[in-house]
Amino acid sequence: MNSVTKLIVALLSILSIALLGLTFFIDQNSELNKLIHYYDLGLCAVFLYDFFIQLYKRKKRWRYFFTYGWIDLLSSIPVMSEFSYVRMLRIFRIVRILRSYKILYAYIISNKRSSLYGLIVFISTVILILSTTLVLHIEQDVGNIKTAEDALWWSYITITTVGYGDYYPVTNPGKLAASILILNGIAIFGAIISYITSKVNTIKKRSSLDQ
Prior knowledge:
- Keywords: Ion channel, Ion transport, Membrane, Transmembrane, Transmembrane helix, Transport.
- Residues 126-199 form the Potassium channel domain.
- The protein is mostly helical.
- The protein folds into two domains: 1-110, Up-down Bundle (Four Helix Bundle (Hemerythrin (Met), subunit A)), CATH 1.20.120; 111-203, Orthogonal Bundle (Helix Hairpins).
- The protein contains seven helices and no strands.
- It has helices at residues 3-22, 31-57, 61-75, 90-110, 112-139, 148-159, 172-210.
- The model has no long low-confidence stretch (mean pLDDT 80).
């Protein structure tokens, strides 16, 4: 797995702990709690993908699995409010973070440019989650963004700068969050295009050297 992916997974592991920690302080039946669990499901999908990729690339797969691979697998299981004991799995995510510190340091030092792309993706993800959560919290009682699903749809069409106009914030803080999210969308797509261009140029240079 390349440095960018490892950096993103490590940072998202920290983010997942922060999000799950918020669930202790909000109403378990609220739309805000539902939104956090939607994001948790998305993060778990990333962790599960990371686990299978690492398992596939390891030469000694069983050794990987029985050392810390099982921790990676358990950390990819989402927390379900219906089964309170499943929340104990958070400890496995903490273990994953402790292991990720060394990965972060090593790859940031040796791959500064790639690490920058990973950092941009992480910051953009944080902005997306914070903006969506803030808008739902502020607009739920005064605007037309009333459910977690409404907030997710609004954030999607906003970050892609499509702007259908079916859901929109009406308060000043909500509008500010929307403005930040639009700028975030422009930045993330610019970074993705730059990263792809960089990879294509690298492949072209290698091909020219081989010829």
